[in-house]
Write a structure and sequence with these properties.
4 helices
Length: 148
């Protein structure tokens, strides 16, 4: 009986522990651009993904890892800016992604990726240049994977 109780406690802690200290917004509304809470530094930098949905540009900033992310993981609404270091923020529009990038520590690296699925593309070159210049102005390095 003691072993069963200990097993239940252990399983509950494995399920609940990763959620402690996380700030989540799991509805379809992106986090406010007024949120200025600094984001944690990431040992592997951050990844930025972009896609066009009927003329509206969407962006997801996510903690860099060695694993490939899949399309649904990136575009699924909901944000996580946990103190555990895991970040996933989905925004709509250039102003919103700039507000998110502003929250990164100076010196952070962001890799703008398109490999995770066919919907991920770079926006028009003028928008890419604008975001690169913005990142330079705030002390963040934005690198694009591929030709842009």
């Amino acid at each position: 009986m003691k072993n069963l109780f200990a097993l239940c406690i252990m399983l509950m802690s494995l399920v609940l522990l990763p959620t402690i200290g996380c700030k989540k917004n799991d509805n379809s509304t992106p986090l406010s651009t007024d949120d200025t809470t600094p984001l944690p530094s990431s040992m592997k930098g951050y990844e930025l993904y972009s896609w066009d949905d009927n003329g509206v540009w969407h962006f997801t900033l996510i903690t860099g890892t060695n694993r490939l992310k899949n399309e649904s993981e990136i575009i699924t609404p909901g944000n996580n800016t946990g103190i555990d270091g895991w970040v996933k923020i989905t925004t709509v529009g250039v102003d919103a992604v700039k507000a998110t990038l502003q929250r990164l520590p100076k010196g952070e690296n962001v890799y703008w990726e398109t490999y995770a699925g066919p919907i991920f593309v770079f926006p028009p070159q003028q928008m890419v240049d604008d975001l690169k210049a913005y990142c330079t102005s705030i002390g963040v390095t934005l690198e694009t994977a591929g030709s842009k």
